[in-house]
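Q: Make up one entry.
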Amino acid sequence: MNFLKKSSLLFGVISLIFFIAGCRTDEAVDDADQFISTIEQIDIPDNVRVIGLGEATHGNVEFQELKKDVFEVLVKKENVRVFVLEGDFGGGQQINQFILNGTGSVEEAVKSLDYDIYKTQQSFEKIKSKIGYLC
């Protein structure tokens, strides 16, 4: 009886996988250009209070450069003044103290973070330019 239950469950899971995989169309999105814009075209509506940014991978140079450029536009054009990063509180405080008061160096501030994904040249440049308050 136990074998029958396990076999039925396995068959159900495999069937579900094939069903889901079969739903894919592989068709190109019509008019994809309407969803694409340059960073300079960013226009955040006035009533937006929180902006979330994600990335497909952590730490690769292309996303780090794109994120730095987006942050810069948000500060210069959209008047964004607060950024919240996934990280430890102590490291965030060191970065915030560097930006607000010039305490320490940018390298010390970034290296104080627990997450290695932020220990990149782009993070150093982003913080050196003091494009926003990080906490």
User: Anything to note?
Assistant: The longest helix spans residues 2-22. DSSP finds five helices and two strands in the chain.
